[in-house]
Amino acid sequence: MRNVQAPGTQKEHTMEIRITKTTQPKSKPDPATLSFGTVFSDHMFLMEYDGAEGWHDARIVPYAPIPLAPAAAVFHYGAEVFEGLKAYRTAEGKIQMFRPMENLKRMSDSAERITLPQFDQEFVLEAMRQLVELDQDWVPNAPGTSLYIRPFLFATDPDLSLHGISHAVFCIITSPVGSYYKEGINPVRIMIETEDVRAVRGGTGYAKCGGNYAAANRAGARAEKLGFSQVLWLDGVERKYIEEVGSMNVMFKIAGTVVTPKLTGSVLPGITRKSCIALLKEWGIPVEERLLSVDELVAAMRAGTLEEAFGCGTAAVVSPIGELHYGDVSVTVNGGAVGPVTQRLYDEITGIQSGKIADTHGWIYHV
Length: 367
Ligand code: PLP
Ligand code: COI
Description:
The protein contains 7 helices and 18 strands. The protein has helices spanning 73-77, 100-114, 121-134, 210-225, 271-282, 294-303, 340-354, and strands spanning 18-19, 43-50, 54-62, 80-82, 85-89, 95-98, 146-155, 167-177, 188-192, 230-234, 242-245, 249-254, 257-261, 287-290, 306-313, 317-326, 329-332, 364-366. The longest helix has 16 residues, at 210-225.
């Protein structure tokens, strides 16, 4: 069905979602062997945008390649934004998501930054719900597993000139996943990056756009070669302040206070970060969102007041950082073990997500 409307208006929820089921369902992976993002469920959601018609042709179809013009803007100028969230299976067999509207709001902010068209967030939530419901057998039930949901939106204008975007595709794919890091909840080794930078204020750091991750590739590859899981970015201007890790925000417990870099515009406003801050406040654990210089962190490392370090993100959940390297300074955090605050946050967040702990915050969305 076609829905004729002005560009970017909020009428898409009137749109019907056509469903074409696969005739060749794939076999599901063994939940015990799941890694991150390599296996995809049977179906995907698609809708198209053009300046005259707005969003139209919303459909759930078998997971398959998407034909695109070689001139499509996404291939040349990186006009793409995405999100990452998860559907969890509870012990009772029900399926639920964690704060999905937060992801869709952030996706809308990301789209605004790249001038990709706005979309009806409630409609996309409903599309996500229908997709997960159709592929519900793909939501794994082993501890620590979930169905990762990846909405993404990109420009398809077949036009090499640098003009405004008037054609786009919105797609949602899903993937049964286990731990993001091969280490699971075990501490990871992180290298503080001193050469490349990921983002600058006024740039796209706060947006979840593909280009940010492309800019991060070189440092990530160098770090991996040296045996680190990921890099910890410093700010792009002074290379002085801690920002975040490639796929997660970071928190440091220094002399009893949890310190996390404040959202300066070049850091992704993480939903797990926001949830951790809320929980820490409820628990009466001091938490500060502020600038944290690498010098202050190194001084704490040297003085032994760096008690815990961890990353937080949808894919990584709450991931302890066991080792931090900065130039020739190398420190083992908390004896390389998972710290008590890290563990408590991990248990609480995964408990709420999996339905083991009651949701008193209104964070759970039932599919
Ligand atoms: N920072 C970056 C660069 C990320 O890619 C992610 C993952 O989405 C995060 C932080 C954590 O954000 P969230 O907790 O919303 O998943
Ligand atoms: C997520 O946590 O959802 C992410 O998007 C991280 C991804 C870059 C692997």
